[in-house]
Amino acid sequence: MKLTTSEALVRWLLAQRSETLAGDEVPLFPGVFAIFGHGNVLGIGTALSRYRDELPVWRGHTEQGMALAATGFAKAADRRQVGVVTSSIGPGALNMVTAAGVAHANRLPLLLLPGDTFVSRAPDPVLQQIEPFGDATATVNDAFRAVSRYFDRITRPEQLISTLPQVARVLTDPAEAGPVTLALPQDVQAETFDFPDSLFEPVVHRVRRIRPDTRELAAAAAALRASDRPLLVLGGGVRYSGAGARALDFASRYGIPVVETTAGRTLVPHDHPLYGGPLGVTGSSSANALAAEADLVFAVGTRLQDFTTASWTVFGPGVKLVTLNAARFDAVKHGALAVVGDAEAGLSELDLGDWRVSSSWSGRAASERARWDAHVSSLRSASGEPTYAQVVGVVNDLSSPDDYVMTASGGLPGELIGGWRGSGQVSMDVEYGFSCMGYELAGAWGAAMALPDRVVTTLLGDGSYLMLNSELFSAAFAGHPFVAVVCDNDGYAVIARLQEGQGGEPFNNQYADCRTSHADPPRVDFAGHAEALGCLVFRASSVSELRSAYARAREASVSSRRPAVVVIRTRPDAWTESGAWWEVGVPESLAGREGYEAGKAAQIRYA
């Protein structure tokens, strides 16, 4: 059929279906986020308009915010559905690069359709064209190459026929999942071609369960049976595989203590007798104590990022590392004994016979976690100005098991990862692969779209709010409710903590330490600002007031179909500490250099 490039692309999007973890069939691409400009309004914009009843289009207010919303959507959909974002050329396109980095670092599918300059070059130089002096083929969209799993520039309509199967492959492959960028020159968007009907036949994409090699399984089984103090580490791959129950069954069968990474958080019920807590810098002293004594670490579905491994100091010397991962890239890291395969399939086929861990080691999980729980409870019950730990405690207490809680940057990831007590239903998104300020609000918009029957709550600091808040209005306008709890502590408190904790002088992080010509600088009225963006607003100045405000915000947000923003002042100097080390470069002139050198001395180096 004769179609424009844009029409063919939209019709292909509509034909793609996906199977959820529950086995339901849903659209692979359930909607498009769009801001139109001269690089996409007449091409892809016209095509989207013609199919608007079949493929919803949501209007955002920053391209970065829309792409972050699409990323949050994919995470909340367990990578079974993919958000699509289109932009104009130039600054509109470049605004999405940061979000592509978020999706890339977190292994989340995202389809970006930035407009591009003319292939014909007849009108060059056009508005927003950068004209690189040494490469006539380069445009701003080449910036996406470093943060895309798959990149293509469509210079002829028929190129869609060969590239679209690759697009679907990357977006639905558990080992390859990440952002895909199709740069669309504006003249090519409008060109026509006789596309084959077969390109638009419905396809159901079922996520592949890669079965592990039997020899790798045998080697892993032998290593586990030879260990005395094994530790099971569950990452995001367990979540996306739907293998949480399988992992707990595996742990229970053999008595292996279980800990979670950031991306694997809330896979394990908090009161499970084998649960040792979250691992690493933003985790718990309980999980870290187990890690220090383990003689074997079995890491499933995780890339073992530095916050999880405490920059490779959380494990004891001589520990054996065994991995199970769908991506061979991640499985072979750090000289691990690698098993390449799906978490559900791999754990179901890994048979350790009648071997079982000693009860003394199995019992350490509950005893260590009890000490951590007592510590967190003491932080939640402290008096004085509200702390992050208390904010998290209030939200935790008032949330239902199927609620969804989020954060991304600053000090709140440590509070949410370390302090949250989950029910075992996946209910958390802490974006700590890229730690992108601004994800908290935009990602919550996407999560609310993916989870219309669940309450989504996002927690963020004043710095993140000021970084990117425009999608509050996008969500309010579109009718997608969620609750945002904004903690105002006068600046970038967690970076001030890092700066001053290593012996640096307070400088340019808290507002009190920033340059200004005012004796009494202005303050932001976050409640007034959120209200101006169409949100419901609730103020709190104490923990008891927060409890009431948050409860009312939950109800009001759902009934009004708008975001509800709760604003509370919090202390800038109170944190939930796991005691783990994190490597940052410390100059010799600072007091923290001694601790840095001690950490480096304890750092494990793998092949």
What order do the helices and strands come in, and which of them pair?
Layout: E1 2-4, H1 5-15, E2 16-19, E3 25-27, E4 32-34, H2 44-50, E5 57-59, H3 63-76, E6 84-87, H4 91-94, H5 97-105, E7 110-116, E8 150-153, H6 159-172, E9 179-185, H7 186-190, E10 192-194, E11 203-205, H8 214-225, E12 230-234, H9 236-241, H10 244-254, E13 258-260, E14 275-278, H11 285-293, E15 296-300, H12 306-309, E16 320-325, H13 328-331, E17 337-340, H14 343-349, H15 359-362, H16 364-380, H17 388-398, E18 404-407, H18 412-419, E19 428-430, H19 439-450, E20 456-461, H20 462-467, H21 471-478, E21 483-488, H22 493-501, H23 526-532, E22 536-540, H24 543-560, E23 564-569, H25 593-602
Parallel strand pairs: 2-11, 4-5, 4-6, 6-7, 7-9, 8-9, 12-13, 12-15, 13-14, 15-16, 16-17, 18-19, 18-20, 20-21, 21-23, 22-23
Antiparallel strand pairs: 1-10, 2-3
Protein name: 3D-(3,5/4)-trihydroxycyclohexane-1,2-dione acylhydrolase (Decyclizing)
Family: Belongs to the TPP enzyme family.
InterPro entries: DHS-like_NAD/FAD-binding_dom, Myo_inos_IolD, THDP-binding, Thiamin_PyroP_enz_cen_dom, Thiamin_PyroP_enz_TPP-bd_dom, TPP_enz, TPP_enzyme_TPP-bd
Question: Quick gist of this model?
Answer:
With 607 residues, the chain is an alpha/beta fold.
Mean pLDDT: 97
Q: How are strands sequenced across the largest beta sheet?
A: 5-4-6-7-9-8
Beta-strand residue percentage: 15-25%
Number of strands: 23
Radius of gyration: 25 Å
Task: List low-confidence stretches.
Answer: none
Structural class determined from secondary elements: alpha/beta
CATH topology of the largest domain, which one? Answer: Rossmann fold
Query: So, CATH architecture of the largest domain?
Result: 3-Layer(aba) Sandwich
Q: How would you describe the shape?
A: globular
Give the biggest beta sheet: 6 strands, parallel
Number of helices in the DSSP assignment:
25
- Give the terminus-to-terminus CA distance: 55 Å
**CATH class placement of the largest domain:** Alpha Beta
Helical amount: 25-40%
CATH homologous superfamily caption of the largest domain: Thiamin diphosphate (ThDP)-binding fold, Pyr/PP domains
Total domains:
3
Keywords: Hydrolase, Thiamine pyrophosphate
Pfam families: TPP_enzyme_C, TPP_enzyme_M, TPP_enzyme_N
Domain Thiamine pyrophosphate enzyme TPP-binding: 431-567
Family: Belongs to the TPP enzyme family.
